[in-house]
Design goal:
Blueprint (H helix, E strand, L loop, with lengths): L5 H4 L7 H12 L5 E2 L11 H11 L14 H15 L9 E4 L1 H13 L5 E5 L5 H8 L3 E5 L5 H13 L6 E5 L11 H14 L2 E5 L25 E6 L12 E5 L1 H14 L5 H12 L3 H24 L11 E5 L8 H13 L1 E2 L1 E2 L10 E5 L4 H16 L1 H15 L1
Length: 407
């Protein structure tokens, strides 16, 4: 029987698999691995949100099938959040939908709006679902830069002039995962103007909208006049409220795109478990001190990590947002690439990071470090890395000898 499924064949091997397997072997051998690899919040969900879940689950009526669009109370809470946070009025009936996390929403919308032969513009490096959601749907992907400078608009102009048919959609992600880059409303305004002129849909991933460390919070593309003519925005409860395993998020914006996502989801799921949606509404409508505490926690971890790595001899830019540091591989190891450097760091320093190539080939000169370990563990990681960097000649020699023996 033929097992060469064409759509699966378009997906490359999972680039984190080798590092993850090495991490698992080390732990199985009793080694203490400090894991900065996955963006998985380590703090508990705020108690008032958990309490609301427990209260809702006691009502047996909530155990039935839910609503794939999301319960009305949560859609109204999303609308209130947009009004409060961005000054944007969202119609809870036609301009927002609840998703099983932003990842599911992005993937299903990609399937809803893409056909074989369509071209989608996606940043590189990028969170994997941004390109692969469209690749799975059968579309083709063309890379554009992440940096919001003049090169970005030039890349859009070039893509439109060179591609036939013209690109169908553009993916944006700011604050960016993995690079932590931020943009302002002027950037969004230029992109909206360009895409409206060329009739290109915009899918904006705003999952890290509340994880920022400066006084100026990141904007929403929906604040730009006319953006809702072409744009939809995805946000998530995962990072803001420490709810990653709850799998709850939402998409808001253009009615046509929301309708397309609504239609395809009606065939695929009955929505998130109702008590989870009730608790999510309580999170959005309730006290927000927990969000301030989340930001303060990541900021403190960021400062300890960046200052400690600098003292250890590894200069890493300090992120202004997200729960990640996008770290250039130290010059002495740059020739190894991100996978080999990540393996070396794991073996010699007992520290796990995410290889940059996992986010696209333009990420291969970096590794992503998650701010997901407490201060004690972070300081231990810094000490381990400092010792490793202080003895890098030996580590490099051993690595290169192993490569030579394997050839």
């Amino acid at each position: 029987m033929d097992s060469e499924f064409q759509r699966i064949q378009r997906l490359p091997p999972y680039v984190f698999a080798e590092v993850n397997a090495m991490k698992a072997r080390a732990r199985a051998n009793g080694e203490d691995i400090i894991d900065f690899g996955m963006g998985n919040p380590d703090q508990p969900t705020p108690q008032h949100i958990v309490d609301k879940l427990c209260e809702a689950v006691q009502d047996s009526r909530t155990h039935r099938y839910s609503n794939s669009r999301g319960i009305p109370g949560l859609r109204k809470a999303v609308s209130a959040y947009y009004e409060r946070r961005f000054g944007v009025s969202i119609d809870p009936e036609s301009e927002t939908i609840v998703t099983l996390g932003s990842k599911e929403g992005l993937a299903n919308l990609a399937s809803a709006i893409s056909s074989p032969g369509d071209v989608i513009l996606v940043p590189n490096p990028s969170y994997p679902i941004h390109p692969f959601g469209f690749i799975i749907a059968g579309a083709s992907v063309r890379n554009v830069p992440v940096s919001a400078d003049s090169d970005y608009m030039e890349a859009l102009e070039k893509a439109v002039s060179e591609i036939s048919p013209k690109p169908r959609a553009l993916v944006l992600n700011f604050p960016n995962n993995p690079t932590a880059e931020l943009v302002d409303l002027d950037f969004y305004a230029r992109v909206v103007e360009f895409c409206r002129h060329h009739e290109i849909w915009i899918l904006s991933d705003l999952a890290y909208s509340e994880v920022y460390f400066d006084d100026q919070p990141p904007p929403s593309i929906l604040q730009v006049p006319g953006a809702r003519d072409i744009a939809v925005e995805f946000t998530s409860m995962s990072k803001t409220y420490n709810m990653p395993g709850w799998r709850i998020g939402f998409a808001s914006g253009n009615k046509t795109l929301i309708s397309a996502l609504t239609r395809i989801k009606s065939y695929l799921d009955y929505g998130a478990f109702t008590p989870i949606q009730v608790a999510a509404a309580a999170a959005l409508n309730g006290p927000q001190e927990c969000v301030d505490e989340m930001r303060a926690l990541y900021k403190e971890r960021r400062d300890v990590l960046i200052e400690g790595l600098a003292a250890a001899g590894w200069d890493v830019p300090s992120p202004k947002a997200t729960m990640f540091a996008w770290a250039p591989i130290p010059p002495a190891f740059a020739h190894l690439g991100s996978i080999e450097f990540s393996k070396l760091l794991l073996r010699e320093a007992k520290v796990a990071v995410a290889p940059g190539i996992g986010f696209g080939e333009h990420g291969d000169g970096h590794v992503r470090i998650g701010l997901v370990e407490n201060l004690h563990r972070t300081r231990q990681a810094i000490r381990n890395i400092k010792a490793f960097l202080g003895n890098y000649d030996k580590a490099l020699e051993e690595t290169e000898n192993k490569h030579a023996a394997a050839r």
